[in-house]
Amino acid sequence: MADVSGKDLRTAERRIARIAHHLLPLATPPPPRPLPIQRSVASANDSYRRVHGEVSTREATWIPACDESGKEYTDIIYEKAVGEGIAKITINRPDRRNAFRPNTIKELIRAFNDARDDSTIGVIILTGKGNKAFCSGGDQALRSSDGYADFESFGRLNVLDLQVQIRRLPKPVIAMVAGYAVGGGQILHMVCDLTIAADNAVFGQTGPKVGSFDAGYGSSIMSRLIGPKKAREMWFLCRFYDAYEAEKMGLVNIVVPLERLELETLKWCREILRNSPMAIRVLKSALNAVDDGHAGLQELGGNATLVFYGTEEAMHPALGLPPFRPLPKHQVPLPLFSRRIIPLTPSAATAAASPKIVELGSLIANLTLEEARSLLDHLQDRLGVSVATFSPAAAAVAPGTATDAAAGAPAASEEKTEFDDVSSNARIATIKVIRALTNLALKEAKDLIEGFPKKFKEGVSKEEAKEAKKQLEEVGAKISIV
Ligand SMILES: CC(C)(COP(=O)(O)OP(=O)(O)OC[C@H]1O[C@@H](n2cnc3c(N)ncnc32)[C@H](O)[C@@H]1OP(=O)(O)O)[C@@H](O)C(=O)NCCC(=O)NCCSC(=O)c1cc(O)c2ccccc2c1O
Hints:
- 42% of the residues lie in helices and 12% in strands.
- It is an alpha/beta fold and 482 residues long.
- The protein folds into two domains: 62-274, 2-enoyl-CoA Hydratase, Chain A, domain 1, CATH 3.90.226.10; 331-482, CATH 3.30.1390.10.
- The strands form four sheets. It has a seven-stranded mixed sheet with strand order 1-2-3-4-8-10-13, with helices on both faces.
- Strand 2 (76-81) and strand 3 form a beta hairpin.
- The longest helix is centred in the N-terminal third of the chain and has 18 residues, at 6-23.
- The chain is elongated, with a radius of gyration of 36 Å.
- 35% of the residues are buried.
- Mean pLDDT is 80; it is low at 24-29, 330-350 and 387-422.
- Ligand LTTK3YTO is lined by residues 15, 18-19, 96-97, 99, 132-133, 136-141, 157, 159-160, 180, 182-184, 206-207, 210, 212-214.
């Protein structure tokens, strides 16, 4: 028989005693072990399955990751899966059953921040090194009267910041639990969105035995997860519960054989990753909102704002609603617009010009609108003059408008108005007025002031043209009625 020293015996006794007072007495015999992975699937060949198929259950290839500080991690391992949107954060203090010290929490916060900001990451796994413990809570050797103190001269309870960070993180966090998840470690898995437990997992609180308690998430979320009676039992009695009991209580999502723990967790990650990240982000905040009070509403509200920012209305809030009353038919705009239009009207001065000018004038007069536009661009590039310089005496200057009158209108026409270039300053206000004048939809109104010359209004009276001119000038547009 091998020699056993007195010290070894004492250590063994101490360990047995430590576990024993958590595990005994069990109120009921352990429940029969269900099959490790249960599925409640109506049909393995339903249309959902045929469309979406099964996700891969292969292993991931992990590469070490760091955050922007580039600082090494000592208490954790931070990795990302090659070619997949999965990050894995592992508490790396196995000789302490992955108990955390303040530095561990600081590193966890850095890694979670990085995974949050990395747009290639969609799901984060939190786990512990080895098979013996996910995390055994705060490092009891470092507890002092003002919290947990390691390299600093003061104590902290910075795990509370980490809990909040995980709750607010806009991506799912999955706790992958093997072995003990006790004390502050059990609370960490509870604030994660999902928990995949190995069949050797053990859950429980020890606070009242070691002079501590978590009256924050550790109490409220536990009560939400397993119900108020069970939460009281867990805290008041400080018993430990195995993985199957935990599953029955609703503390974990699924129990799997230890050797399949990571593969099953990866499968869950991959299933999440094929769904809409924004839908999941909003759902996470919605599921947390009531329990997180104002902070929960703030998170949910922030997500609503983000979704709103993607809409046209948020980009142009000043545009308001489209005009309610449809305009009479003759006023319904025929879309037509111009960045630059030269009003080509004959004048008395033309007759007095030299033959060269008359010929040039005649050539210009016969240009199509497209050619006229090209000519203006050319002149502008060549001579550096603005289009407005070429507008006739009337008043056309950027960002002006002018509408062509009805075809065949007798006089060269006070009933025409054409749009010239609309400056960005006046743009939104101009669009708004145009919509009121024309009943155009937002997009059409925007196209109107940006697009190639097209008709704006047809058959309008002089008074209407003047009124339109007045309204547009009031918002900074410059108009000519020719
Ligand atoms: C987890 C155990 C049941 C495992 O038992 P096992 O027999 O497998 O292993 P050992 O007991 O021999 O442990 C091996 C080795 O690890 C050391 N160790 C284990 N846990 C811790 C720990 N939490 N802190 C420091 N060191 C730990 C252990 O001493 C051994 O070292 P050796 O040198 O002797 O080999 C069992 O280990 C256990 O019950 N651990 C203690 C669990 C515990 O009480 N945790 C603290 C609860 S309080 C808490 O976590 C907490 C943290 C916070 O930050 C809070 C913040 C705000 C409010 C409340 C908080 C809070 O309550």
